[in-house]
Amino acid sequence: MPKSLKIYIFLLVLILVGIIIIDANKKTPIDWRPSYSLREKIPFGLYVFDQESKSFFNPQKIKKFGETPYEFFDQYYDVDDSTYTVSGTFLHIDNSCTIDDTSVDELLYFVSHGNNAFLSATSFPEKLADSLHFETAQSNSFLDSIQFKTERNHKTNQFYFNKGVNDAYFYEIDSTTTTVLGTQSNSKGITQTNFVRIPYKNGAFYLHLQPVAFTNYYLLKENAQYTQEVLGYIAPNETIYWNVNQYENQNLSESPLRYILSKPALRWAWYLSLISLLFFMIFNAKRRQRIIPIKEPLKNTTVDFTKTIGNLYYQEKDHQNIAEKKIVFLLEKIRNEYYIDTFNLDETFINRLHQKTGNDKTDIENVVRLIKKIRNQSQTTEKELINFNELLEKLNL
């Protein structure tokens, strides 16, 4: 290995080590993404809520599932009795509720059978809003610290939120059936509804517009009591069916890569390693491939030989010999390709050749006439040879 190459490699390794040391000692910035992930410990993740869920839902049982509500509840529907074999409360907490329309229909049907649904998100599907007769809106007045209250303890307990809150509120509700369970107020005294209960046939929907209350940041800031009060509206004897991200389902918790994939830096390092290994395999295999020698195909010299012989005859002005060879070649081709007898070049021969080739009958007659003339003479002129060749090219035989 050349000395210069060793120096370059050493400098490259030195730079990489320096980058690693600097990056390791650099203060990690706070990740304020609203991930609402059960596995992430960032401020707006749900790791603390997931760990403390048993205390929040005591004595209820919790069952997590990663499928859509339609895929999950449809398997528990008894077609014969038109009932569900399970009962309880559907739970969904996320930055935005992106449940598909088919799952909304399934959820409405599940609730209509005497069950409940608790959804906390900044927005809800349009189909759900139309079915429950409510409408949400955005308010620009909630830009500072917001005070949350529940109707259960609205005089005694006040909870303040200042990061990650949204300005959504229930703009329109059916006051004859909808019950207001919670409100939000800003420093100017503007109060708006953010938590309601909407009955639906034999069950009810609990809709909450501030999912940030369930995140790590506020549960660790002694706001857990507000979360308990919000969840306290769920009946204590019901099973909780918690709809989580499909990649956060319990089935994935046994994966040996779960920790690596849960950290953005480690996850990208893992992906880059796989990509680098793939490139190494591709280029290394290409470099080690045995060189395949190029074999030139055998050159067909028949045409060149024919041209040489033809030029020789033409230079010797042996026009008769050339014409006779053309006749022999023509008749041989007619016999092999068109299966026509060439012993008698009569009217029958002309008609059959005309039918099989589609050439003009007059041209064929001229060729036959010239063949007979050449055969009956001992010398052929250059003009006659050229004329004969032009007729053959016209027939394209």
Topology:
Layout: H1 3-25, H2 47-51, H3 53-56, E1 62-65, H4 69-74, E2 77-78, E3 83-84, E4 88-93, H5 101-112, E5 116-120, H6 126-132, E6 135-138, E7 146-150, E8 159-161, E9 168-172, E10 179-185, E11 191-200, E12 203-208, H7 216-219, H8 224-231, E13 239-243, H9 258-262, H10 264-288, H11 302-315, H12 319-338, H13 347-357, H14 361-375, H15 382-395
Parallel strand pairs: 1-13, 4-5, 4-13, 5-12
Antiparallel strand pairs: 2-3, 6-9, 7-8, 7-10, 10-11, 11-12
Can you give a write-up of this model?
The protein has 397 residues and is α/β, with parallel strands linked by helices. Helices cover 44% and strands 16% of the residues. The strands form 3 sheets. A 9-stranded mixed beta sheet has the order 1-13-4-5-12-11-10-7-8. A two-stranded antiparallel ribbon has the order 2-3. The relative contact order is 0.09. The model has no long low-confidence stretch (mean pLDDT 84).
List keywords for this structure.
two-stranded antiparallel sheet; 9-stranded mixed beta sheet; 13 strands; single chain; alpha/beta; 44% helix; 15 helices
Rough shape?
Answer: elongated
Number of strands: 13
> Any low-confidence stretches, pLDDT <50, length ≥5?
none
SSE string, helices as H and strands as E: HHHEHEEEHEHEEEEEEEHHEHHHHHHH
Number of helices: 15
Residue share in helix = 40-55%
Helix and strand content put the structural class at: alpha/beta
- The mean pLDDT is 84
| Rounded radius of gyration (Å) | 45 Å
Distance between the termini: 69 Å
Instruction: Estimate what percentage of residues fall within beta strands.
Output: 15-25%
Strand order of the largest sheet: 1-13-4-5-12-11-10-7-8
Biggest sheet details:
9 strands, mixed
